[in-house]
């Protein structure tokens, strides 16, 4: 009996406002942890479900995304895949960049180079599952700070992510949606969809629920960084958000 089973996807809260994404494929028994900033809550979330982590995928080198790599590998034997990032992820078993493939069971994904937040930052897209892991590049109604790249770099990254199918679920690294939404409705005061998205995010957070995943279609409609017409406008908005007290 061959029954097509969807991949299970869980957002595990970690550190102060990170999400580590656990993705489980029942058919193969594989479980991937994406961007484990710490190990304990991730190992527990997997154990609670009877899952064993077989792979770790990283989107960029920041410690709140890779801090749990070594401990998870020691506990489970998982292999660790991520971007080169000039050697700043010392726990990697395999380095991937633009166009390189990953897989969980029979489900395939592709790395997309989106350097801007960090120079080597990647997103990982699984088209068959309609999932993209965006790390700290694309957030719900936001984008990452430009630590190592320029507004033009982030503008280019937004074009790549915007081009994914609208139903693609956006799994990002932080619960920043309410803060981002408060800025989004200031950046685009006539955007009713952003207002509605902010109201929904506030309701979900009041109930203690994650606001994620978002979707590419929702980001096209509400995200002031994806919606910026030029890299200059994106840069102005990023600078405004950096000092925004919402
Ligand atoms: Zn980061």
From TrEMBL:
InterPro entries: Clx_II_MBL (IPR035680), Glyoxalase_II_hydrolase (IPR050110), HAGH_C (IPR032282), Hydroxyacylglutathione_Hdrlase (IPR017782), Metallo-B-lactamas (IPR001279), RibonucZ/Hydroxyglut_hydro (IPR036866)
Domain Metallo-beta-lactamase: 17-174
SMART domains the record matches: Lactamase_B
Entry-linked Gene3D superfamilies: Ribonuclease Z/Hydroxyacylglutathione hydrolase-like (3.60.15.10)
Cofactor: binding details: Binds 2 Zn(2+) ions per subunit.
Catalysed reactions, semicolon-separated: an S-(2-hydroxyacyl)glutathione + H2O = a 2-hydroxy carboxylate + glutathione + H(+)
EC class name: hydrolase
GO molecular function annotation: hydroxyacylglutathione hydrolase activity
Assembly and interaction partners: Monomer.
Family the UniProt entry places it in: Belongs to the metallo-beta-lactamase superfamily. Glyoxalase II family.
Protein's UniProt name: Hydroxyacylglutathione hydrolase
Gene from which this protein is expressed: gloB
């Amino acid at each position: 009996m061959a029954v097509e089973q969807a991949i299970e996807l869980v957002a595990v809260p970690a550190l102060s406002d990170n999400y580590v994404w656990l993705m489980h494929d029942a058919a193969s028994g594989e479980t991937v942890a994406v961007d484990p900033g710490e190990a304990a809550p991730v190992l527990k979330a997997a154990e609670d479900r009877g899952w064993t982590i077989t792979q770790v995928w990283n989107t960029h080198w920041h410690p709140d995304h890779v801090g749990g790599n070594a401990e998870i590998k020691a506990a489970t034997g998982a292999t660790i895949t991520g971007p080169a990032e000039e050697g700043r992820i010392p726990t990697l078993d395999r380095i991937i960049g633009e166009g390189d493939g990953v897989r969980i069971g029979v489900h395939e994904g592709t790395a997309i180079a989106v350097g801007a937040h960090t120079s080597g930052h990647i997103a990982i897209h699984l088209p068959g599952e309609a999932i993209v892991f965006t790390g700290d590049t694309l957030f719900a109604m936001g984008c990452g700070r430009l630590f190592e790249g320029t507004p033009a770099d982030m503008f280019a990254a937004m074009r790549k992510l915007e081009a994914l199918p609208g139903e693609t679920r956006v799994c990002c690294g932080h619960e920043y949606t309410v803060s981002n939404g408060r800025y989004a409705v200031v950046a685009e005061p006539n955007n009713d969809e952003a207002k509605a998205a902010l109201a929904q995010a506030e309701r979900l957070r009041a109930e203690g629920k994650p606001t994620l995943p978002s979707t590419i279609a929702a980001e096209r409609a509400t995200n002031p960084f994806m919606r910026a017409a030029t890299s200059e406008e994106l840069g102005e908005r990023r600078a405004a958000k950096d000092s925004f007290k919402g």
